[in-house]
Amino acid sequence: MIIVENLRKVFGSTEAVKGISFRIDNGEIYGLLGPNGSGKSTTMRILAGITAPTSGKVIVEGIDVSKDQLRVKEITGYVPETPALYESLTPSEFFSFIGSIRRIPQDVLEERVDKLVKAFGIEEYMNHLIGTLSFGTRQKVSLISALLHDPKVLILDEAMNGLDPKSGRIFRELLMEFKKEGKVIVFSTHILALAEIICDRIGLLYQGRIIAEGTVDDLKKLAEEESLEDVFLKLTQAKEEVSLLVSALKEAL
Ligand SMILES: Nc1ncnc2c1ncn2[C@@H]1O[C@H](COP(=O)(O)OP(=O)(O)OP(=O)(O)O)[C@@H](O)[C@H]1O
């Protein structure tokens, strides 16, 4: 379970997260949605034990992130928006490296690497330098590396970016398995159709605050809109702006 209470994060003069609260149960996929700069990645980095909160309480599977970031990192698989991979290693070397720092027994590591590499179809790239791989293949390497220690918590920041339809489907099926196992999953995306299919509940962030929370149906009722895209645009006050901008564009073209 993840418990977030009154979380704030300040960077210099920027208040990126302005006192947000939410809870995520085991076996639940919670979508963090919001416009660019609304605080999704900052929140996710705090949940993953990477960035310290300025104030507020964040408890991840009973661990207070302000007291034990290391333990949070141990039980969490984090896929950052921009993967930080070692360009001069091959995926094979990178996975061995992850296995050693995560202290995963060799036989367990080999079995997991084998299954995940086959599932995402990157066998042929295992001995190529990561720096030479395509965007989507690098994303698959990042995803696999986050799953190798069988984490209880998954923090997935736009993790499906660049995945082709087959890998996207495989990843979605994997997420459903993880749900059954009772993992806690936090998922951000700008692809609202994907959020609609995957997320059990959604927290809509706008300018560092959660302005709406609930199932997709709850949000549609709340905003009196038919699609999640219209809900998003209405609640983030972008709907009228979009029509004005589109009219201006049409006139200009
Ligand atoms: N390390 C940092 N130093 C200073 N400001 C930061 C830092 N990280 C984030 N910010 C600021 O915090 C705000 C929220 O950024 P964040 O990356 O969390 O947004 P986001 O919702 O993930 O955006 P996007 O959809 O574009 O990925 C932005 O104003 C951003 O410039």
From TrEMBL:
Q: Which CDD domains match?
A: ABC_DR_subfamily_A
Which parts of the sequence belong to the ABC transporter domain?
2-232
GO terms, molecular function: ATP binding; ATP hydrolysis activity
Q: Does the keyword Transmembrane apply?
A: no
Protein keywords: ATP-binding, Nucleotide-binding, Transport
Keyword check for Nucleotide-binding, yes or no.
yes
Top-level lineage group: Archaea
Fetch the InterPro entries from UniProt.
AAA+_ATPase, ABC_transporter-like_ATP-bd, ABC_Transporter_VariousFunc, P-loop_NTPase
- What Pfam families does UniProt report for this protein, alphabetically? ABC_tran (PF00005)
What protein name does the entry list?
3-dehydroquinate dehydratase
Record the organism: Thermococcus chitonophagus
Lineage of the organism? Archaea, Methanobacteriati, Methanobacteriota, Thermococci, Thermococcales
